[in-house]
Specification:
It contains twelve helices and 13 strands. It has 387 residues and is an alpha/beta fold. The strands form three sheets. A six-stranded mixed beta sheet has the order 4-5-13-10-11-12, with helices on both faces. Strands 8-7-6-9 form a four-stranded parallel beta sheet, with helices on both faces. The longest helix has 16 residues.
């Protein structure tokens, strides 16, 4: 059962009926992301979660899929929230928790969003999906399309680590390597999708990936006894996870599951590609494309995100901040997490610990606070990029 009511533009508020295949808001003056809206008045008790499936689908009413037969799942979600005691001892911060998304299918948090997007694509009669990717999203789309019997078309920068291309090809996807960045890949999808009959599942250019990613927020609340942490430190490329969690917190408050207190949301980017950091520092609503974007953390190499204004909104509403760290600091963070906690974190995950260290030194967070760091994937796919 779903309480999905309709779609609504996240910027101009235009309402759209569900059951129609849409990408962005169709208002020519807007063309920004759409959100799924739910009939919260129908109510759900937290107690009803007891005994449910241990995956992101345990929050079934707050997902948009109408018919269970359309759900395409590989067991994604309900990843552990681990107390990183030894990591905390390195910097005098006893209450560090790691949300370890590397245990999701295909090795990253992208499984959540693409499971939801492919499930909704199946519901809406789609047979072909296309995506620009820095790596992990392409692998996830390829896997879920394989499971669903759909075709996947993946466009990735030529310098993406080989494992991502190999993974997609083994799932049966059509892979194209592009001389350029993920934004260049996105342009190809945009230009060809109508002629090719592809549904574009680019980050926040369809309404449903964010609905999968938001389940990270539901899980953190449930795993923390329905009291949210003081700080969430999140690696931010496209920013769908942060946007989704911020949406989830509002939904849970309306459901009566949590109170109005929110974590301070910290967006972490690489110094070689930091459009959100620059926009936050300048007080801008939207970011500008970051020139000559470079970083070994492939998932952070997003020169400009279509949902940038939503990331900045979550940061500002939570009294959070945006911070950039160098590739050298990222690698050090990967090593520290591995040696202290036995987690081989993706560079994006390493970036969160590097950022936390800097935040503590600058006095922007207190060592007494409870902080959740997100490891968004496994480093095994990034060995080619690591020194």
């Amino acid at each position: 059962m779903t309480y999905f009511s309709h779609l609504e533009c996240s910027h101009c508020g235009t309402r759209y009926e569900k059951g129609v295949l849409l990408n962005l808001c169709t208002n020519p003056k807007c063309r920004l992301p759409l959100f799924a809206v739910y009939d919260i008045s129908r109510g759900i008790s937290r107690d009803s979660l007891v005994g449910r499936i241990q995956s992101m689908w345990r929050y079934r009413e707050m997902t948009p899929v109408e018919d269970d037969e359309n759900i395409v799942s590989l067991g994604e979600g309900m990843t552990p929230l681990l107390h990183a005691k030894r990591l905390g001892e390195l910097i005098g911060c006893p209450s560090i928790l790691i949300k370890d998304e590397s245990l999701c299918p295909t090795g990253s948090f992208k499984a959540r969003g693409l499971a939801m997007a492919v499930s909704m694509a199946r519901q809406l009669g789609v047979s072909k999906c296309a995506i620009p990717t820095a790596g992990n999203a392409g692998g996830a789309l390829s896997a879920y399309c394989a499971k669903a019997g759909m075709e996947a078309y993946v466009f990735m920068p030529r310098d993406t680590p080989d494992i991502f291309r190999i993974e997609c090809e083994y799932y049966g996807a059509h892979v194209t390597l592009v001389d350029g960045l993920i934004t260049d890949c996105g342009k190809i999808v945009q230009e060809r999708k109508d002629d090719e009959g592809w549904f574009d599942v680019s980050t926040l250019k369809e309404p449903y990936r964010v609905e999968g990613k938001k389940t990270m927020g539901y899980e953190i609340a449930e795993q923390s006894g329905w009291r949210l942490p003081d700080v969430i430190v999140y690696p931010t490329g496209g920013g769908t996870g942060m946007i989704g969690m911020w949406k989830a917190f509002e939904e849970m408050e309306r459901l009566g599951w949590i109170d109005s207190r929110r974590p301070r949301m910290i967006a972490v980017q690489a110094s070689g590609c930091a459009p959100i950091v620059k926009a936050w520092q300048n007080g801008d609503e939207f970011s500008e494309p970051f020139p000559n974007a470079q970083t070994l953390a492939s998932g952070l190499r997003v020169p400009r995100a279509v949902g940038d204004f939503l990331v900045l909104q979550a940061i500002r509403e939570s009294d959070g901040r945006a911070i950039a760290v160098s590739d050298e600091e990222i690698v050090e963070g990967v090593r520290d997490i591995a040696r202290a906690e036995g987690i081989f974190a993706a560079p994006e995950g390493g970036a969160t610990f590097a950022a936390l260290r800097n935040l503590l030194e600058a006095g922007n967070v207190s060592p007494k606070e409870t902080m959740v760091l997100f490891n968004t994937g496994t480093a095994y796919k990034y060995v080619q990029n690591l020194p």
